[in-house]
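[Solved] Which block belongs to which protein?

Original post:
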Amino acid sequence: MKTRSLFLLVLAVLVVTGSAPAWAKKGHSHYRPGYGEVVKVLPRGHHRVHHHHDTYFYLNGIFYSPFDSFYRVVYPPVGLVVSTLPYGYVDVRFGNRVYARYNDIYYEPIPRGYRVVKAPPSAPPPPQPDVTAVPASALGTVTVTVEVLNVRSGPSRLQPVSDHVAAGDRLYVLGQAPEWYYVRLPDGGFGWVWRQFVRGEVTAPR
Protein backbone atom coordinates (compact mmCIF):
# COMPACT_ATOMS: atom_id res chain seq x y z
CA MET A 1 0.00 0.00 0.00
CA LYS A 2 2.84 2.40 0.87
CA THR A 3 4.57 1.61 -2.42
CA ARG A 4 1.39 2.34 -4.41
CA SER A 5 0.82 5.62 -2.55
CA LEU A 6 4.40 6.69 -3.21
CA PHE A 7 4.03 5.84 -6.91
CA LEU A 8 0.84 7.91 -7.19
CA LEU A 9 2.49 10.83 -5.41
CA VAL A 10 5.50 10.77 -7.73
CA LEU A 11 3.24 10.48 -10.77
CA ALA A 12 1.17 13.46 -9.64
CA VAL A 13 4.33 15.55 -9.29
CA LEU A 14 5.49 14.53 -12.76
CA VAL A 15 2.13 15.47 -14.30
CA VAL A 16 2.22 18.90 -12.65
CA THR A 17 5.78 19.56 -13.79
CA GLY A 18 5.10 18.27 -17.30
CA SER A 19 7.60 15.42 -17.02
CA ALA A 20 5.11 12.57 -16.83
CA PRO A 21 5.04 9.88 -19.50
CA ALA A 22 2.58 10.52 -22.30
CA TRP A 23 0.07 7.94 -21.11
CA ALA A 24 -0.22 9.66 -17.73
CA LYS A 25 -1.11 13.11 -19.08
CA LYS A 26 -4.76 14.03 -19.10
CA GLY A 27 -6.22 14.18 -22.56
CA HIS A 28 -3.40 12.20 -24.17
CA SER A 29 -4.66 10.06 -27.05
CA HIS A 30 -2.45 7.12 -28.00
CA TYR A 31 -3.04 5.90 -31.53
CA ARG A 32 -3.33 2.14 -31.88
CA PRO A 33 -3.30 0.83 -35.45
CA GLY A 34 -5.96 -1.68 -36.40
CA TYR A 35 -5.44 -5.18 -37.73
CA GLY A 36 -4.52 -5.17 -41.41
CA GLU A 37 -3.11 -1.65 -41.44
CA VAL A 38 0.28 -1.22 -43.08
CA VAL A 39 3.16 0.97 -41.91
CA LYS A 40 6.42 1.75 -43.66
CA VAL A 41 8.56 2.05 -40.52
CA LEU A 42 8.33 0.06 -37.29
CA PRO A 43 7.78 2.07 -34.10
CA ARG A 44 10.82 2.90 -32.01
CA GLY A 45 11.46 0.45 -29.18
CA HIS A 46 9.91 -2.60 -30.85
CA HIS A 47 11.09 -6.13 -30.04
CA ARG A 48 11.70 -8.97 -32.45
CA VAL A 49 9.90 -12.20 -31.51
CA HIS A 50 9.94 -15.57 -33.23
CA HIS A 51 7.32 -18.27 -33.54
CA HIS A 52 8.42 -21.44 -35.31
CA HIS A 53 9.96 -20.13 -38.56
CA ASP A 54 8.15 -16.78 -38.59
CA THR A 55 9.39 -13.43 -37.32
CA TYR A 56 7.17 -10.77 -35.75
CA PHE A 57 7.80 -7.35 -34.27
CA TYR A 58 6.09 -6.40 -31.03
CA LEU A 59 5.50 -3.21 -29.08
CA ASN A 60 2.85 -2.34 -26.50
CA GLY A 61 0.49 -5.13 -27.46
CA ILE A 62 0.71 -4.53 -31.22
CA PHE A 63 2.23 -7.18 -33.50
CA TYR A 64 3.69 -6.46 -36.92
CA SER A 65 4.59 -8.92 -39.66
CA PRO A 66 6.85 -8.21 -42.68
CA PHE A 67 4.74 -7.43 -45.74
CA ASP A 68 6.71 -6.81 -48.94
CA SER A 69 8.76 -3.70 -48.07
CA PHE A 70 6.27 -2.66 -45.36
CA TYR A 71 4.92 -4.05 -42.09
CA ARG A 72 1.33 -5.12 -41.48
CA VAL A 73 -0.48 -5.18 -38.13
CA VAL A 74 -1.53 -8.77 -37.48
CA TYR A 75 -3.19 -10.92 -34.85
CA PRO A 76 -0.42 -12.99 -33.25
CA PRO A 77 -0.45 -16.78 -33.68
CA VAL A 78 -1.49 -18.93 -30.75
CA GLY A 79 1.61 -20.08 -28.89
CA LEU A 80 3.74 -16.99 -29.53
CA VAL A 81 5.53 -15.88 -26.35
CA VAL A 82 6.36 -12.33 -25.23
CA SER A 83 8.45 -11.35 -22.22
CA THR A 84 6.16 -8.59 -20.91
CA LEU A 85 2.50 -7.66 -21.03
CA PRO A 86 1.42 -4.37 -22.62
CA TYR A 87 0.55 -1.44 -20.40
CA GLY A 88 -3.20 -1.27 -19.89
CA TYR A 89 -3.94 -5.00 -19.97
CA VAL A 90 -6.71 -6.35 -17.76
CA ASP A 91 -7.07 -9.64 -15.91
CA VAL A 92 -10.18 -11.61 -16.85
CA ARG A 93 -11.45 -14.83 -15.31
CA PHE A 94 -13.17 -17.63 -17.18
CA GLY A 95 -13.99 -20.60 -15.00
CA ASN A 96 -10.98 -21.34 -12.80
CA ARG A 97 -8.44 -19.66 -15.07
CA VAL A 98 -7.27 -16.06 -15.20
CA TYR A 99 -6.02 -14.54 -18.45
CA ALA A 100 -4.48 -11.21 -19.34
CA ARG A 101 -6.34 -9.45 -22.15
CA TYR A 102 -5.31 -6.52 -24.31
CA ASN A 103 -6.58 -5.48 -27.75
CA ASP A 104 -8.72 -8.67 -27.85
CA ILE A 105 -5.60 -10.83 -27.45
CA TYR A 106 -5.49 -13.29 -24.54
CA TYR A 107 -2.31 -14.30 -22.72
CA GLU A 108 -1.48 -16.86 -20.06
CA PRO A 109 1.60 -16.70 -17.82
CA ILE A 110 4.34 -19.27 -18.31
CA PRO A 111 7.82 -19.46 -16.71
CA ARG A 112 9.52 -17.62 -19.58
CA GLY A 113 6.91 -14.92 -20.17
CA TYR A 114 3.35 -14.76 -21.48
CA ARG A 115 1.92 -17.02 -24.16
CA VAL A 116 -0.80 -16.04 -26.64
CA VAL A 117 -3.79 -18.37 -26.30
CA LYS A 118 -7.11 -18.85 -28.01
CA ALA A 119 -9.94 -16.72 -26.70
CA PRO A 120 -11.82 -18.69 -24.03
CA PRO A 121 -15.11 -20.20 -25.32
CA SER A 122 -17.19 -17.89 -23.13
CA ALA A 123 -15.25 -14.74 -24.06
CA PRO A 124 -17.23 -12.04 -25.86
CA PRO A 125 -16.51 -11.81 -29.61
CA PRO A 126 -14.07 -9.07 -30.62
CA PRO A 127 -15.72 -5.85 -31.78
CA GLN A 128 -16.23 -5.50 -35.51
CA PRO A 129 -14.09 -2.84 -37.19
CA ASP A 130 -15.73 0.47 -38.03
CA VAL A 131 -15.45 0.38 -41.81
CA THR A 132 -16.70 3.98 -42.06
CA ALA A 133 -13.82 5.44 -40.03
CA VAL A 134 -10.83 6.87 -41.88
CA PRO A 135 -7.70 4.85 -40.94
CA ALA A 136 -5.14 7.05 -39.19
CA SER A 137 -2.43 5.56 -41.41
CA ALA A 138 -4.27 6.29 -44.69
CA LEU A 139 -2.14 7.94 -47.37
CA GLY A 140 -5.22 9.13 -49.23
CA THR A 141 -8.35 7.91 -50.96
CA VAL A 142 -8.95 6.69 -54.49
CA THR A 143 -12.08 5.88 -56.48
CA VAL A 144 -12.48 2.90 -58.81
CA THR A 145 -12.86 4.03 -62.44
CA VAL A 146 -13.68 0.72 -64.17
CA GLU A 147 -16.82 -1.37 -63.97
CA VAL A 148 -15.17 -4.21 -62.02
CA LEU A 149 -11.65 -4.19 -60.58
CA ASN A 150 -9.78 -7.21 -59.28
CA VAL A 151 -8.34 -7.01 -55.78
CA ARG A 152 -5.24 -9.16 -55.44
CA SER A 153 -3.34 -10.64 -52.51
CA GLY A 154 -0.07 -9.05 -53.66
CA PRO A 155 1.21 -6.25 -55.94
CA SER A 156 1.34 -8.26 -59.14
CA ARG A 157 -1.08 -9.56 -61.75
CA LEU A 158 0.42 -12.98 -61.04
CA GLN A 159 -0.98 -12.88 -57.50
CA PRO A 160 -4.38 -14.53 -56.91
CA VAL A 161 -7.56 -12.47 -56.94
CA SER A 162 -8.96 -12.17 -53.42
CA ASP A 163 -11.92 -9.84 -54.00
CA HIS A 164 -13.53 -7.37 -56.41
CA VAL A 165 -14.61 -3.73 -56.23
CA ALA A 166 -16.93 -1.81 -58.52
CA ALA A 167 -16.93 1.54 -60.28
CA GLY A 168 -17.36 4.40 -57.82
CA ASP A 169 -16.17 2.43 -54.78
CA ARG A 170 -14.00 4.55 -52.49
CA LEU A 171 -10.81 2.91 -51.21
CA TYR A 172 -8.41 4.06 -48.49
CA VAL A 173 -4.77 3.71 -49.53
CA LEU A 174 -2.61 2.27 -46.73
CA GLY A 175 0.54 1.42 -48.69
CA GLN A 176 1.97 1.38 -52.18
CA ALA A 177 4.34 -0.43 -54.50
CA PRO A 178 5.30 0.36 -58.11
CA GLU A 179 2.02 0.54 -60.09
CA TRP A 180 -0.02 -0.77 -57.13
CA TYR A 181 -1.89 0.48 -54.05
CA TYR A 182 -2.55 -1.49 -50.87
CA VAL A 183 -6.08 -0.47 -49.87
CA ARG A 184 -8.85 -0.98 -47.37
CA LEU A 185 -12.01 -2.07 -49.13
CA PRO A 186 -15.54 -0.75 -48.49
CA ASP A 187 -16.40 -3.90 -46.49
CA GLY A 188 -13.33 -3.55 -44.24
CA GLY A 189 -11.15 -6.05 -46.09
CA PHE A 190 -7.70 -5.37 -47.54
CA GLY A 191 -5.87 -6.03 -50.78
CA TRP A 192 -3.89 -4.65 -53.72
CA VAL A 193 -5.35 -2.82 -56.73
CA TRP A 194 -3.71 -1.64 -59.94
CA ARG A 195 -3.15 2.13 -59.92
CA GLN A 196 -4.22 2.77 -63.50
CA PHE A 197 -7.82 1.78 -62.70
CA VAL A 198 -8.32 4.17 -59.77
CA ARG A 199 -8.25 7.94 -59.41
CA GLY A 200 -7.42 10.11 -56.39
CA GLU A 201 -4.74 11.88 -54.38
CA VAL A 202 -2.17 9.83 -52.46
CA THR A 203 0.76 11.11 -50.41
CA ALA A 204 4.11 9.37 -50.00
CA PRO A 205 4.46 7.18 -46.86
CA ARG A 206 6.08 8.98 -43.93
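(Second protein starts here: sequence line, then its C-alpha coordinates.)
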Amino acid sequence: MSQKLLVKRKRRTDSEKRQFITHKYFINEGEGKRSVCLQFLCNTLDVSQIYYTVSNASFGSAKEDLRGKSIPPNKTKECTKLAVINFIKSLPAVPSHYCRKNSSRLYLPQDFKNLTKLYQIYKKKNVLQGIDVVGERIFRNIFQENFNIGFHVPKKDKCLQCIRFERLDMDIADEAIKQAKLDHVEEKNHSYNRFKMHQNIQKTDPATLCKKDVHKITIKNSMNEKASSFKIEVQMRLKATPTSCYKSLLPISKQKYDDLNKLCINNVIPPIFHHEFMNIPTATVKDTLPDSDIEDEFE
Protein backbone atom coordinates (compact mmCIF):
# COMPACT_ATOMS: atom_id res chain seq x y z
CA MET A 1 0.00 0.00 0.00
CA SER A 2 2.84 2.40 0.83
CA GLN A 3 6.61 2.51 0.59
CA LYS A 4 9.17 4.73 2.27
CA LEU A 5 11.73 6.35 -0.06
CA LEU A 6 14.60 8.70 0.55
CA VAL A 7 14.12 12.29 -0.51
CA LYS A 8 15.93 12.73 -3.82
CA ARG A 9 16.27 16.50 -3.68
CA LYS A 10 16.01 18.55 -0.52
CA ARG A 11 14.56 22.01 -0.78
CA ARG A 12 14.21 23.63 2.59
CA THR A 13 15.00 26.69 4.60
CA ASP A 14 16.11 26.92 8.20
CA SER A 15 12.53 27.49 9.35
CA GLU A 16 11.17 24.38 7.63
CA LYS A 17 11.04 20.95 9.16
CA ARG A 18 13.85 18.65 8.14
CA GLN A 19 12.52 15.72 6.11
CA PHE A 20 14.63 12.74 5.16
CA ILE A 21 12.02 10.37 3.68
CA THR A 22 8.96 10.55 1.48
CA HIS A 23 6.07 8.12 0.96
CA LYS A 24 4.93 6.52 -2.24
CA TYR A 25 1.44 4.95 -2.42
CA PHE A 26 0.23 1.94 -4.39
CA ILE A 27 -2.97 0.00 -5.05
CA ASN A 28 -3.30 -3.53 -6.29
CA GLU A 29 -3.83 -3.88 -10.03
CA GLY A 30 -4.10 -7.46 -11.19
CA GLU A 31 -0.94 -9.32 -10.23
CA GLY A 32 1.02 -6.11 -9.76
CA LYS A 33 0.61 -2.71 -8.20
CA ARG A 34 0.00 0.79 -9.48
CA SER A 35 1.40 4.00 -8.06
CA VAL A 36 -1.23 6.55 -7.01
CA CYS A 37 -1.39 9.77 -5.04
CA LEU A 38 -2.46 10.07 -1.41
CA GLN A 39 -5.82 11.67 -2.25
CA PHE A 40 -6.69 8.88 -4.69
CA LEU A 41 -5.82 6.25 -2.08
CA CYS A 42 -7.96 7.94 0.60
CA ASN A 43 -10.94 8.20 -1.75
CA THR A 44 -10.56 4.56 -2.78
CA LEU A 45 -10.47 3.35 0.83
CA ASP A 46 -13.15 5.89 1.88
CA VAL A 47 -11.06 7.23 4.77
CA SER A 48 -10.31 10.78 5.77
CA GLN A 49 -6.64 10.29 6.59
CA ILE A 50 -4.16 7.44 6.93
CA TYR A 51 -1.34 9.34 8.58
CA TYR A 52 -0.94 6.91 11.51
CA THR A 53 -0.90 3.86 9.26
CA VAL A 54 1.54 5.39 6.81
CA SER A 55 3.93 6.83 9.38
CA ASN A 56 4.15 3.48 11.23
CA ALA A 57 4.16 1.25 8.16
CA SER A 58 6.87 -0.82 6.65
CA PHE A 59 6.65 -1.83 3.04
CA GLY A 60 3.40 -3.65 2.28
CA SER A 61 1.43 -3.46 5.58
CA ALA A 62 1.02 -1.54 8.82
CA LYS A 63 2.52 -2.47 12.16
CA GLU A 64 0.56 -4.42 14.74
CA ASP A 65 -1.71 -2.30 16.92
CA LEU A 66 -0.15 -2.17 20.38
CA ARG A 67 -3.01 -0.36 22.11
CA GLY A 68 -4.22 -2.17 25.25
CA LYS A 69 -1.13 -4.36 25.45
CA SER A 70 0.61 -2.42 28.21
CA ILE A 71 -0.35 -2.70 31.89
CA PRO A 72 -1.81 0.55 33.30
CA PRO A 73 0.15 1.93 36.26
CA ASN A 74 -3.04 2.30 38.36
CA LYS A 75 -4.34 -1.26 37.79
CA THR A 76 -5.24 -3.16 40.95
CA LYS A 77 -2.81 -5.97 41.69
CA GLU A 78 -4.07 -9.53 41.73
CA CYS A 79 -2.64 -10.11 45.20
CA THR A 80 -4.65 -7.14 46.50
CA LYS A 81 -7.86 -8.55 44.99
CA LEU A 82 -7.07 -11.93 46.50
CA ALA A 83 -6.72 -10.28 49.91
CA VAL A 84 -10.23 -8.83 49.50
CA ILE A 85 -11.66 -12.25 48.60
CA ASN A 86 -9.97 -13.88 51.61
CA PHE A 87 -11.34 -11.16 53.90
CA ILE A 88 -14.91 -11.71 52.67
CA LYS A 89 -14.55 -15.49 53.03
CA SER A 90 -13.49 -15.04 56.66
CA LEU A 91 -16.74 -13.24 57.55
CA PRO A 92 -19.24 -15.11 59.79
CA ALA A 93 -21.88 -15.56 57.07
CA VAL A 94 -24.55 -18.17 57.84
CA PRO A 95 -27.51 -19.52 55.82
CA SER A 96 -31.07 -18.49 56.53
CA HIS A 97 -32.72 -20.30 59.42
CA TYR A 98 -36.01 -21.04 57.63
CA CYS A 99 -35.24 -20.29 53.95
CA ARG A 100 -32.16 -22.47 53.47
CA LYS A 101 -34.19 -25.03 51.53
CA ASN A 102 -35.16 -22.55 48.81
CA SER A 103 -32.14 -20.24 48.80
CA SER A 104 -28.34 -20.55 48.97
CA ARG A 105 -27.90 -16.93 50.06
CA LEU A 106 -25.83 -16.32 53.18
CA TYR A 107 -26.44 -13.59 55.73
CA LEU A 108 -24.10 -11.53 57.89
CA PRO A 109 -24.90 -10.50 61.47
CA GLN A 110 -26.59 -7.17 62.01
CA ASP A 111 -23.35 -5.68 63.37
CA PHE A 112 -22.04 -5.14 59.82
CA LYS A 113 -25.19 -3.17 58.83
CA ASN A 114 -24.34 -2.54 55.15
CA LEU A 115 -21.60 -2.71 52.52
CA THR A 116 -20.18 0.71 53.38
CA LYS A 117 -19.73 -0.32 57.02
CA LEU A 118 -18.12 -3.58 55.90
CA TYR A 119 -15.64 -1.70 53.68
CA GLN A 120 -14.64 0.53 56.60
CA ILE A 121 -13.91 -2.55 58.72
CA TYR A 122 -11.86 -4.07 55.88
CA LYS A 123 -9.89 -0.86 55.34
CA LYS A 124 -9.14 -0.35 59.03
CA LYS A 125 -7.96 -3.94 59.45
CA ASN A 126 -5.64 -3.92 56.42
CA VAL A 127 -4.16 -0.50 57.19
CA LEU A 128 -3.17 -1.68 60.67
CA GLN A 129 -1.54 -4.78 59.14
CA GLY A 130 0.23 -2.76 56.43
CA ILE A 131 -1.63 -4.45 53.54
CA ASP A 132 -2.64 -2.56 50.40
CA VAL A 133 -6.35 -1.77 50.18
CA VAL A 134 -8.65 -1.26 47.21
CA GLY A 135 -11.18 1.48 46.68
CA GLU A 136 -14.77 1.13 47.80
CA ARG A 137 -16.03 0.75 44.22
CA ILE A 138 -13.68 -2.18 43.50
CA PHE A 139 -14.51 -3.71 46.88
CA ARG A 140 -18.22 -3.45 46.09
CA ASN A 141 -17.76 -5.05 42.65
CA ILE A 142 -15.81 -8.01 44.08
CA PHE A 143 -18.39 -8.50 46.83
CA GLN A 144 -21.40 -8.45 44.49
CA GLU A 145 -19.91 -10.44 41.59
CA ASN A 146 -18.23 -13.27 43.53
CA PHE A 147 -20.46 -13.76 46.58
CA ASN A 148 -24.15 -14.25 47.36
CA ILE A 149 -24.23 -12.59 50.78
CA GLY A 150 -26.83 -10.29 52.29
CA PHE A 151 -26.84 -8.01 55.33
CA HIS A 152 -30.47 -8.08 56.44
CA VAL A 153 -32.15 -10.91 58.30
CA PRO A 154 -34.80 -12.59 56.08
CA LYS A 155 -38.42 -11.71 56.79
CA LYS A 156 -39.24 -15.28 57.81
CA ASP A 157 -36.52 -15.36 60.48
CA LYS A 158 -38.43 -14.70 63.70
CA CYS A 159 -36.69 -17.03 66.15
CA LEU A 160 -34.38 -14.85 68.23
CA GLN A 161 -33.67 -17.74 70.60
CA CYS A 162 -31.99 -19.78 67.85
CA ILE A 163 -29.85 -16.80 66.84
CA ARG A 164 -28.79 -16.22 70.45
CA PHE A 165 -27.86 -19.88 70.98
CA GLU A 166 -25.85 -19.98 67.73
CA ARG A 167 -23.70 -17.06 68.86
CA LEU A 168 -22.90 -18.67 72.20
CA ASP A 169 -19.99 -21.04 72.71
CA MET A 170 -21.79 -24.08 74.08
CA ASP A 171 -18.52 -25.70 75.17
CA ILE A 172 -18.05 -23.14 77.94
CA ALA A 173 -21.74 -22.44 78.61
CA ASP A 174 -23.27 -23.50 81.92
CA GLU A 175 -25.80 -26.30 82.32
CA ALA A 176 -28.79 -23.95 82.51
CA ILE A 177 -28.08 -22.51 79.05
CA LYS A 178 -27.51 -25.98 77.58
CA GLN A 179 -30.79 -27.23 79.03
CA ALA A 180 -32.61 -24.15 77.73
CA LYS A 181 -31.27 -24.86 74.24
CA LEU A 182 -32.41 -28.50 74.40
CA ASP A 183 -35.88 -27.44 75.54
CA HIS A 184 -36.11 -24.89 72.75
CA VAL A 185 -35.07 -27.43 70.10
CA GLU A 186 -37.62 -29.93 71.42
CA GLU A 187 -40.38 -27.32 71.35
CA LYS A 188 -39.39 -26.36 67.81
CA ASN A 189 -39.62 -29.98 66.66
CA HIS A 190 -43.05 -30.39 68.27
CA SER A 191 -44.28 -27.23 66.56
CA TYR A 192 -43.05 -28.50 63.21
CA ASN A 193 -44.78 -31.85 63.71
CA ARG A 194 -48.05 -30.12 64.61
CA PHE A 195 -47.76 -27.98 61.50
CA LYS A 196 -47.28 -31.04 59.27
CA MET A 197 -50.18 -32.82 60.97
CA HIS A 198 -52.52 -29.87 60.33
CA GLN A 199 -51.46 -29.85 56.69
CA ASN A 200 -52.51 -33.48 56.24
CA ILE A 201 -55.49 -33.56 58.59
CA GLN A 202 -58.04 -33.45 55.76
CA LYS A 203 -56.56 -36.69 54.40
CA THR A 204 -56.97 -38.64 57.65
CA ASP A 205 -60.08 -37.06 59.20
CA PRO A 206 -63.17 -37.15 56.91
CA ALA A 207 -64.96 -34.61 59.10
CA THR A 208 -62.40 -31.94 58.27
CA LEU A 209 -63.17 -29.91 55.19
CA CYS A 210 -60.53 -28.27 53.05
CA LYS A 211 -61.99 -25.75 50.63
CA LYS A 212 -60.00 -24.94 47.51
CA ASP A 213 -62.38 -22.21 46.38
CA VAL A 214 -63.47 -20.09 49.34
CA HIS A 215 -66.03 -18.20 47.24
CA LYS A 216 -68.11 -21.28 46.35
CA ILE A 217 -69.76 -24.06 48.32
CA THR A 218 -70.93 -27.50 47.20
CA ILE A 219 -74.41 -28.63 48.29
CA LYS A 220 -76.65 -31.68 47.78
CA ASN A 221 -80.40 -32.06 47.83
CA SER A 222 -80.22 -35.63 49.13
CA MET A 223 -78.47 -37.55 51.90
CA ASN A 224 -77.53 -40.22 49.38
CA GLU A 225 -73.77 -40.38 48.91
CA LYS A 226 -74.17 -40.96 45.16
CA ALA A 227 -76.49 -38.02 44.70
CA SER A 228 -75.33 -35.29 42.36
CA SER A 229 -74.05 -32.03 43.81
CA PHE A 230 -73.72 -28.52 42.49
CA LYS A 231 -71.83 -25.39 43.46
CA ILE A 232 -73.24 -22.04 44.36
CA GLU A 233 -71.33 -18.80 44.68
CA VAL A 234 -71.13 -17.12 48.07
CA GLN A 235 -71.66 -13.39 47.94
CA MET A 236 -70.80 -11.42 51.02
CA ARG A 237 -71.47 -7.72 51.35
CA LEU A 238 -69.89 -7.33 54.76
CA LYS A 239 -66.45 -5.76 54.65
CA ALA A 240 -65.67 -6.57 58.27
CA THR A 241 -64.86 -10.09 59.43
CA PRO A 242 -67.89 -11.60 61.18
CA THR A 243 -67.42 -12.80 64.75
CA SER A 244 -68.63 -16.10 66.15
CA CYS A 245 -71.81 -16.05 68.20
CA TYR A 246 -70.61 -18.89 70.42
CA LYS A 247 -67.17 -19.62 71.80
CA SER A 248 -67.76 -23.38 71.92
CA LEU A 249 -70.19 -26.07 70.75
CA LEU A 250 -73.61 -25.92 72.38
CA PRO A 251 -74.32 -29.00 74.54
CA ILE A 252 -77.37 -31.23 74.21
CA SER A 253 -79.12 -33.45 76.71
CA LYS A 254 -77.86 -36.95 77.44
CA GLN A 255 -81.07 -38.55 76.13
CA LYS A 256 -80.82 -36.76 72.79
CA TYR A 257 -77.15 -37.70 72.49
CA ASP A 258 -78.02 -41.37 73.07
CA ASP A 259 -80.64 -41.21 70.34
CA LEU A 260 -78.16 -39.71 67.90
CA ASN A 261 -75.58 -42.30 68.85
CA LYS A 262 -78.06 -45.09 68.17
CA LEU A 263 -78.88 -43.63 64.77
CA CYS A 264 -75.17 -43.59 63.94
CA ILE A 265 -74.70 -47.19 65.04
CA ASN A 266 -77.62 -48.31 62.87
CA ASN A 267 -76.22 -46.26 59.96
CA VAL A 268 -79.39 -44.25 59.73
CA ILE A 269 -77.08 -41.27 59.75
CA PRO A 270 -74.48 -41.69 56.96
CA PRO A 271 -70.98 -42.63 58.22
CA ILE A 272 -69.49 -39.44 56.85
CA PHE A 273 -71.43 -37.48 59.51
CA HIS A 274 -70.72 -39.81 62.46
CA HIS A 275 -67.70 -37.83 63.60
CA GLU A 276 -69.71 -34.63 63.84
CA PHE A 277 -72.58 -36.12 65.86
CA MET A 278 -70.40 -38.24 68.12
CA ASN A 279 -68.40 -35.20 69.25
CA ILE A 280 -71.35 -33.08 70.35
CA PRO A 281 -70.90 -32.22 74.07
CA THR A 282 -73.57 -33.27 76.57
CA ALA A 283 -74.82 -31.55 79.68
CA THR A 284 -77.84 -31.30 81.92
CA VAL A 285 -79.82 -28.90 79.77
CA LYS A 286 -83.50 -28.43 79.10
CA ASP A 287 -84.85 -29.26 75.67
CA THR A 288 -85.99 -25.94 74.25
CA LEU A 289 -87.60 -27.26 71.08
CA PRO A 290 -91.35 -26.49 70.91
CA ASP A 291 -93.85 -29.33 71.15
CA SER A 292 -95.05 -30.65 67.84
CA ASP A 293 -98.68 -30.14 66.85
CA ILE A 294 -98.72 -33.51 65.06
CA GLU A 295 -99.22 -36.48 67.34
CA ASP A 296 -97.35 -39.72 66.83
CA GLU A 297 -99.30 -42.54 65.25
CA PHE A 298 -98.71 -45.02 68.07
CA GLU A 299 -100.10 -42.68 70.72
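Accepted answer:
You had them paired correctly. Confirming on the second one: The longest strand covers residues 21-29.
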